Amino acid sequence: MAKTTAERSGPVSVSTDEDIEKKQLISSYRLMLLIRRLEESVYRKFHEAKIGGYLHRYDGMEALVAGIIPFLKIPGDYVLSTYRDHAHALACGTSPRAVMAELMGRADGCAAGKGGSMHLIDPDNGFLGGDGIVGGPVPISLGVGYALKYRGGGNVCVVYFGDGAMNQGGVHESMNMVGLYKLPVLFILENNQYAMGTSVSRSTGQPDFVLKAKAHGIQGEQVDGMDLLAVRDVAGRAIARMRETGEPYFLEMKCYRFVGHGIGDDNTKAWTTYRTEDEVALWRERDPLARTADLLLKRGYLSAEQMEQFEAEVQVVVDDAIEFAESSPEPPLDSLYENVYSQ
Ligand SMILES: Cc1ncc(C[n+]2csc(CCOP(=O)(O)OP(=O)(O)O)c2C)c(N)n1
Ligand SMILES: [Mg+2]
Predict the structure, then answer these.
(1) What is the mean pLDDT of the segment spanning 12-36?
(2) Which residue did the predictor score with more confidence, 103 or 340?
(3) CA atoms of 21 and 320, how far apart (whole Å)
(4) pLDDT, tens only, 231-245
(5) Which ligand 1 atom minimizes the distance to the CA of 196?
(6) Of the residues 196, 257, 263, which should be mutated to test ligand 1's pocket, given the most ligand atoms within 8 Å of the CB?
(7) Architecture of the domain made up of 17-326
(8) Is the CB of 133 under 6 A from ligand 1?
């Protein structure tokens, strides 16, 4: 029987029972902590020239995966993401070792070392991949949604994409057909306010994204993506409803990326050309990781000592992933043409 991603590493489905909620929140917090610490270490490894290509971090947006992906049943449900995809793979259950090895272009990576940061993929864990093309995952979600409806069984496809992608033609063409055929696709718009250096206000005449989804026949709502509880609440209900009705849904997640767009716009403070340090500081006050830690402490779900222990445990996992990746071989030359076409 299919298990939810959280069941494979702990508990899962929505319940009012406090014990279950406590376990779910602790599990989501650990996931968020892992994502944050892994992203930080990946940044360091890039600057040690251990990672090539490009890199987009998820710092600040962790609640968008930790509040949604644990509700999924894998095998059966699917996730699609953008190039900002490390968090999604980890949340689906891809091992930190396989993620890190992929980032370093090693044979033990989840795409055999040939995909890199933007193209993590792990179909066995329901993760159908990141995508370097802005808006690219959305047409794929149309196909996945169609397949899920055709097969029956109440499964869903969750597709993540950005505010910039919302201005792409293919995104709207796909949403139109998902709305027309009523396919079980959950759209997660990661509205982090910017597409590289271009703010939403400078790029769209209609910034009400939920309205745009409704224009395609897809119901939806806006959510505070910096608040794990809010994300969990809305997503848990939406996914449960979708399993019953098979219909699509759209969630606009208001959020913020704490660092630059990508490695070329990172720590150099290049982002101060399009957003102020005050603005970044204001959003950092709403850090979903810190807020969740506060919540767990306040509710007495975790003690300060347990928090410190979590930090230490997560650090061990990250260090182990780095060590594993660094000792993994590069893909052999004769594998160059493998998996270029489906086999
Ligand atoms: C089709 C396409 N056009 C342009 C680019 C260059 N590009 C890479 S990321 C990006 C911004 C996308 O912003 P958004 O969708 O808001 O996602 P975010 O980076 O904020 O997560 C652009 C324009 C691309 N990768 N693909
Ligand atoms: Mg954006």
Answers:
(1) 86
(2) 103
(3) 30
(4) 999 999 999 999 999
(5) 11
(6) 196
(7) 3-Layer(aba) Sandwich (3.40)
(8) yes
